[in-house]
Amino acid sequence: MRRPLFWRIVMALTPLLLAGFYLFLLTYQAERVAITDDARFYMEAAKDYGDYLDNGWKGNKYFDKNFIDRYWRNNHEHPSFAKLLMAGGYLIHKKFGFWRESVSYRVGISFLAAVTLLFLFSFVRRAVSFRAAVFASLFFIFLPRTFFHARVATLDFTVGATCFSFVYCYWRGLTSRFWAWMTGIAFGLALASKLNAPFMVLPVLVHYCIIKWDDLKRRPIRTIFAPQFVSMLLFSLPLFFALWPWLWHDTAARFKEYVLFHLNHYGIGMYYLGQIYSTPRPPWSAPFVMMVVTTPLLTVLCAVLGFMLYRWRGDVRRERPMLLVALSAFVAVGTLMFLPAPFYSGVKLFQPLFPFLAVAAGVGLWRVLDRATILPARWRFAPFGVVFIPVILSMIDLKHDNLSYYSELIGGTKGAARFGFETHYYDLFYYDLAEYFNRELKTFSPVAFDPNGKEYPFTSGILKRSKLLTPKFYYADNKDSPYFVLTHEYRWREYPDLLRKHKWRKPVYVLKRQGVPLLTVYKKEESPIPVRPLLPVKMPQLKIDDQRN
User: Fold this and answer.
1) pLDDT tens sequence across 86-127
2) What pLDDT does residue 546 have?
3) Burial class (CB in 10 A: 0-12, 13-18, 19+), 183
């Protein structure tokens, strides 16, 4: 039965409205999002890449080795796509003055997030239903940790977005030649995002073998060389190299350097269940535990119900989309659970998991409400908004600092501190801290940070250039500086000693989220001005005539 024109228009506009809503949330007050320690690598590199694009046309130097080395040496150990997105925002800022500099590096990542939402909506709409697609999109929007990563200039959200786009193109390519050929482009962008992207080939291959098992037995060669895989062979690696000029010269040596850097990645500390891990890394179960405790409880429950209540028998005629979702989600988190790869910093290293988790949650909520016969059919899906109220309230309470989000399962950020989880990391320069110094500093004042202060010279510099931090602030290594900031990060082994050392001091400012201190500012007490003691003064004796009457 053909739907009325009005509803067809509504259904066509809904994904665009959701994507626009997501982009608005991501960019609203984006200058208030903390600057991460990665910024000193990625923002600086993005600025150089932008200058390469801007200056290369003068003398046609784009392919010149010295010119490339000048602009692409910075952060050459990571692929380029995410930093090119940042460079695009920087160039718009440079040419037209849009946004602050700190925000300009983030806009490209946020725009990619909105595009990813369109892919996610399309996937669920075609695989399940329109309502499930709406629910999945909302679950994706209100993933606090992913929301944070979509607002900062790092690589982690980009690889999650491009991996999901690759899986989407592959699945659509099973019934569409256009999307089959787009699979190679999508995988090339994923490769150009981060080193964990190649693992997403595994769920695609397993899924393809399952749904094409009979064809593989009858026509193995023709089935193996499907358009998706031919596209990957033809386009993915060329696109990976085309987007990364650093590899255009001395290709073999530089590619080897890239691989070896990540195979021998330096250890990064992580505070997990009251212990500090680096080498050896946290227990194999840590990625799964972190996913559970940093994802809204109702989202996790709906995702579990999505797999339990899904109509698996009808999955075959739709090319088994939920099987693909399950395989992709497992590989995204399983690579960190079962391979000897470094694991640190909460859930940032397996961002490819979360679009698939949102898909499963959307399907689960749709199936639960669809079966809720206690409600009239017309109003059966009306209560869906209640599911998102707890996470929305928590995100509002955290302001823009969603990296400190923990779910209701362990009692939020306060419960996480009690159980021994990291309440924040990344050596963040918070907007509220910048606002404090903007109010406090009347003269040029050095400010020291501990336990890890080496990131703050750059992050404070970009805040100054963006006119978000007073020029009277300047970073100093001297711990006897007038101001001293203690960031409460247990992953630094010297932190407990620092905390005991300064416990007796009276703080002048404490930044808290949900009752948990994230950093404390101390001010050096000025010694009172010494007052010279008064010397005894010999008073002259006065002669007084003794007058007698």
Assistant:
1) 999 999 999 998 999 999 999 999 999 999 999 999 999 999
2) 42
3) buried
In single-letter form, the type of residue at position 142 comes to F
What's the rounded Cα separation, in Å, for the pair 424 and 151? 16
Q: Is residue 270 part of a domain?
A: yes
The domain boundary residue, chosen from 373, 388, 403? 388
Cβ atoms 424, 433 nearer than 8 A: no
pLDDT 10s digits, 332-364:
999 999 988 778 888 998 999 999 999 999 999
User: Is the domain of 303 the same as that of 451?
Assistant: no
Establish if 414 belongs to a structural domain.
no
In a domain, 530, yes or no: no
Q: Global pTM?
A: 0.91
Please answer whether residues 472 and 444 qualify as being in contact, where contact means their C-beta atoms are separated by less than 8 angstroms. yes
Residues 443 and 353 in one domain: no
Instruction: For residues 129 and 221, state if they share a domain.
Output: yes
Stretch 532-547: mean pLDDT, rounded?
Answer: 46
Domain span holding position 486:
431-523
Quick one: tokens of 114? 């909105």
Q: What is the reported pLDDT for 544?
A: 39
Q: How confident is the model at residue 319 (pLDDT cuts 50, 70, 90)?
A: confident
How many folded domains does the chain comprise? 2
Q: Under 8 Å CB-to-CB from 516, ≥6 apart: which residues?
A: 404, 413, 414, 416, 417, 423
The dihedral formed by the CA atoms of 176, 181, 182 and 184, expressed in degrees to the nearest 10: 140
Average pLDDT estimate for 515-524: 93
Beta-carbon contacts of residue 297 (< 8 Å; ≥ 6 apart): 390, 407, 408, 409
Whether residue 543 has pLDDT greater than 50: no
Contact 370, 376 (CB under 8 A): no
CB 15 within 8 A of CB 118: yes
Whether residue 113 lies inside any domain: the answer is: yes
Same-domain check for residues 339 and 469: no
* Cis peptide, bond prior to residue 451, ω within 30 of zero: yes
